[in-house]
Design goal:
The complex is a heterodimer of chains A (282) and B (162). Chain A has 282 residues and is an alpha+beta fold. Chain A contains three helices and 15 strands. Chain A is globular and about 65 Å long. Chain B has one domain. The chains are: A alpha+beta (282), B mainly alpha (162).
């Protein structure tokens, strides 16, 4: 009897999404357990964040100030460039810009299965998170949401052996797919020919194909190119830009699937939410 | 008698809850690959100790919770825990008489069967390239079984649950 129940559950869950409501109901009981499991690690980070020497703090402050100054200077230029880009796109008359919204989510330090690269974050469907949303950190693409529960969601990292992400080489626009390897900090690009124009040091950015990841975000840096004359494809490895094993805060992104059309000729107005990434939560 | 029922149920849920917390706790990458499935060990203990109170269906519901907790296909752990509890309840008289070494052997084969079922359902979902480390929890689970057994028996004797 119990066997029948569990096997039928397995089949239903494999074939359809009808059991998602049962899952979110049960997650009310399991989420507190995950939070408890995450307490020791959070406590460790809290303590190591509080107990920091004065000299280190001073150094960090100086460094951050320098970075802030640099970024401010870059932003000054960015506004002008954005305007120019809008104008140029309007001249082409097929102009649009994708609006993006982000939500900050924190890591819940639990391990679901050791052979998978999946992490749990503390924002779920109550915040409107849904499956197949891209997740970023300050340096690049982290992964995508695979399942959203009411108060938490599961994020598959780009290094998971079952994960693939469409990328292009930033230097020349060469498109390919990057697979996870199961090792932290390693991606594999198996579908490029031996004579492909790609060298170690090339930046890989999302190509926007596939519809999950918005175009133009940094993914990884190529660190090894190994031509194999006896095979049709070369062996290429890359290191993710995002600090997958260090970041504790992630950005969940909504990219508006319908492009926001820019103003008519002469009216250079941009739709309010298309102007820049808008913060939903602090 | 009623007080005892409540107490036994409370102890059952507290120990299973603690096992679930241990199951998902993440210390370091090495510990993560070695982390045994504490929940199944606790369930085996309770089905040997109190087979008339905890049956296959409580194992099934704990299994469902575990599925949600670890984000597996619903029913995977439910199936495994129901099967393992069924065997342990069937054999509980013999298991109680077994010396520790033989108990460990029983636990080893339970965990091995469990990992094989997981392997089956996981490869149903995607072409998995599982490494050797996938099988480590079987060994560590067998090694920590004496500890789990002694601790849980100590708790049970202290609370006088029979």
């Amino acid at each position: 009897m119990a066997l029948l129940v569990s096997i039928s559950l397995l089949i239903i869950d494999y074939r359809s999404e009808r059991l998602d409501r049962l899952r979110s109901l049960l997650s009310i009981f399991t989420y507190p357990l995950q939070s408890i499991a995450s307490v020791p690690v959070d406590f460790y980070h809290a303590v190591s964040g509080t107990v920091i020497s004065f000299v280190e703090l001073q150094k960090e402050n100086q460094r951050l100030k320098a970075v802030q100054f640099e970024n401010d200077a870059k932003l000054l230029k960015l506004a002008a460039l954005e305007k120019e880009n809008t104008r140029l796109r309007m001249l082409l008359e097929n102009s649009f810009q994708l609006g993006e919204q982000v939500l900050v989510a924190e890591l819940v330090s639990v391990k679901l299965a050791p052979y998978e690269h999946t992490v749990v974050v503390n924002k779920g469907s109550r915040f409107g998170v849904h499956a197949e949303q891209p997740v970023l950190d300050a340096n690049g693409i982290v992964g995508q949401v695979v399942r959203a529960l009411p108060s938490s969601s599961e994020v598959m990292l780009i290094t998971d052996p079952d994960h693939a992400i469409p990328v292009q080489v930033n230097r020349n626009g060469l498109r390919t797919i990057a697979f996870g390897t199961g090792q932290p900090n390693r991606l594999h690009l198996p579908f490029l020919a031996n004579n492909a124009d790609i060298v170690p040091g090339d930046l890989l950015v999302t190509s926007g194909l596939g519809g999950v990841f918005p175009a133009g975000y940094p993914v990884a840096v190529v660190d090894k190119f190994e031509a194999r004359p006896d095979k049709s494809f070369a062996n290429i490895y890359a290191t993710p830009k995002a600090e997958l094993d260090k970041s504790r805060e992630f950005l969940i992104v909504w990219s508006h699937s319908t492009p926001v059309v820019l103003g008519e000729q002469g009216k250079a107005s941009v739709a309010p939410d298309a102007k820049e990434a808008e913060h939903v939560a602090p | 008698m009623l007080r005892l029922d409540v107490l036994a149920t409370a102890y059952f849920f507290v120990t299973v809850g603690a096992a679930m917390v241990l199951r998902v706790m993440s210390w370091s990458p090495l510990m993560d690959t070695l982390n045994p499935d504490w929940i199944v060990l606790v369930l085996i203990y309770w089905s040997i100790a109190l087979p008339e109170r905890f049956g296959v269906f409580s194992a099934l519901s704990i299994g469902l919770l575990t599925d949600v907790l670890t984000g597996r296909l619903l029913g995977q752990y439910a199936l495994i825990y129901a099967l393992i509890c069924y065997f342990s309840i069937n054999e509980h008289r013999r298991l109680r008489q077994f010396p520790m070494l033989q108990q460990c052997l029983f636990v080893f084969f339970c965990l091995l069967g469990q990992q094989m079922i997981i392997f089956g359902t996981e490869s149903m979902q995607a072409g998995n390239r599982l490494s050797l480390s996938f099988w480590y929890p079987v060994l560590t689970g067998t090694l920590v079984w004496p500890l789990v057994f002694v601790v849980l028996r100590y708790i049970r004797v202290m609370a006088r649950i029979v």
